[in-house]
Amino acid sequence: MDELSVVVVGAGPIGLAAAAHLLERGLRPLVLEAGPQAGAAVAQWRHVRLFSQWSELVDPAARRLLEPTGWRAPDPAGYPTGEQWAAEYLVPLAEVLGDHVRVNARVVGVARRGRDRVVDDGRDSEPLTVHVEGGERITARAVVDASGTWGGPNPLGGDGLPAAGEREAADRIGYRVPDVVGERARYAGRRI
């Protein structure tokens, strides 16, 4: 099983950093990103300025992987926007990782090979099967779930459940941070 890849689900900041750490340890990462590029979720809130400084946003293993390529770290005291974080760190890191990152590869399930709720004997010794949308199956020695939470916003009701009428009004509810400057025409003169 040592020759198998460690599959990392998600090419955001955590998934890419995990891949850098795996490489440092002599393991083969395979990062599967559902979106069209690394940092796809960050791209959806690119207009938002982070409350963390660059010094807290660059993983040490990722830095060690990037620096030999000529990459220069941004000002450690700066506060980037999502767009800057992606362009100046996530995209270059994904490029350095190269073939270890695949985009448009949505993971739809993970299971132990040949095991189910009835057949459980020898479960620990079997590799994992990662099921990718479209029918592809990848055999992996381990899986790191770095898929994040952006794709599943928190419902408005209590206890993590939708509020009364929320499902029916879903097409009129915005769960994301709006770009009121970039989409000025949509929001000008509106009230909540």
Topology:
Layout (H helix, E strand, L loop, with lengths): L4 E5 L3 H12 L4 E4 L7 H4 L16 H7 L15 H16 L3 E2 L4 E6 L15 E5 L4 E9 L38 H4 L5
Parallel strand pairs: 1-2, 1-6, 2-3
Antiparallel strand pairs: 4-5, 5-6
Helix pairs in contact: 1-3, 1-4
Please give the order of strands in the largest beta sheet. 3-2-1-6-5-4
The average pLDDT value, as a whole number, equals 91
In percent terms, what proportion of residues is strand? 15-25%
How do the helices and strands follow one another from N- to C-terminus?
Answer: EHEHHHEEEEH
Helix coverage percent? 10-25%
Form type? flat
Radius of gyration: 20 Å
- Kindly, what is the distance between the CA atoms of the first and last residues, rounded to a whole number of angstroms? 56 Å
- In total, the number of strands is 6
SS-based class: alpha/beta
Explain what the structure shows:
This protein is an alpha/beta fold. It is 22% helix and 16% strand. It is built from five helices and six strands. Helix 1 (13-24) links the parallel strand 1 and strand 2 (29-32). The longest helix is centred in the middle third of the chain and has 16 residues, at 82-97. The chain is flat, with a radius of gyration of 20 Å.
Key terms:
5 helices; alpha/beta; six-stranded mixed sheet; 192 residues; flat
